[in-house]
Amino acid sequence: MPTRSYPSPAAGKAVARHSTVRRDLACVVAITVIAAVLCATFDFGERFYRWTRGAERFQVDELPPTLFVLASGLAWFAWRRYRESQRELVLRRELEEEAERLLADNRRLASQGIDTQENERRHLARELHDELGQYLNSISLDAARIRDLAAPREPEIHRISLAVIQSAHHVYREIGGMIRRLRPIGLDEFGLPGALEHCVDGWRERLPDASFTLTVEGDFSTLSDAQNITLYRLVQEGLTNISKFARNARVEIYLVRTAGERGEIVVTMADDGPGVDLSIPRKGLGLIGMRERVEALGGEFHIASEPGSGFLFCARVPAQASPVAPNAAGEPAGAAANSEK
Ligand SMILES: Nc1ncnc2c1ncn2[C@@H]1O[C@H](COP(=O)(O)OP(=O)(O)OP(=O)(O)O)[C@@H](O)[C@H]1O
Ligand SMILES: [Mg+2]
What we know:
The chain contains 7 helices and 5 strands. It is an alpha+beta fold. Bound molecules: adenosine-5'-triphosphate (ATP) and magnesium ion.
């Protein structure tokens, strides 16, 4: 089967540059030839001499060689500037490549940092659950046994054992909250939509003045762990921001997977809260972290807001996510597209 190869963009640019140079040179040669033919046809030199004979004392007839020297000088001047700009262009390309390589390194580091953080969180959640949970349970059972044994004879011990049971229950609840924050409930068991539903339900209880709608479209059963946790953390951070900056807002969350082999997952969260002026520098790290997470999966992250017009963020992640390739020197997969209004 015949195949057709296409020139690379760099080769294409070089070809375009050469063709312009040739065309321009051809123009210069053609104009010179035309001028020579016209001069020969109309005896330009003789006419010029006749015209300027009267002004012999001003040496006007010496003008052509002087102009020739000036033209040669200008050509030399232009050539020097051209070489200079070429050198600057090469330097600039090298710097751009260096910047792209550093950006890719930076993204890879961020991606590794996020992975490490998630692994550590998962490990901590498991340890808290398995180790502390078990011991707290034993403490609670032992205290209940002491309570039962002491009940008739030792009212003081009975009271203390009740306090121990209460404290154990309190710590157990606290640890449960910590485990849920460290590793979202249901993400492993029920997948992203289920975990998000659970997360949003939690915020419905915590923020009764706000209203939340979660719309899920598409199949999310085949997402990788990194995609699941990234998309979950996006919504989690978005909802935390709602609790800080837009407690009474109407919040709409969309989780959509577009069909097709090159499909993508789009998460959008919009609220009608007070919004913010994005041209003013912000100190927080939440949005920066969101963008880093999304770009680490080769996606794009956009935010939009204006004072009084709510706040919106939108993340697009390729469904077949491939983390930023090591030493990717070319155009990074997900340009830092932060389209701030
Ligand atoms: N839903 C929102 N409504 C209005 N303003 C918002 C909203 N979300 C974010 N912002 C604005 O964007 C800024 C940056 O948000 P970001 O999450 O990065 O930081 P933060 O929440 O202030 O701090 P951090 O997340 O690091 O604890 C916020 O300080 C706030 O001004
Ligand atoms: Mg935040």
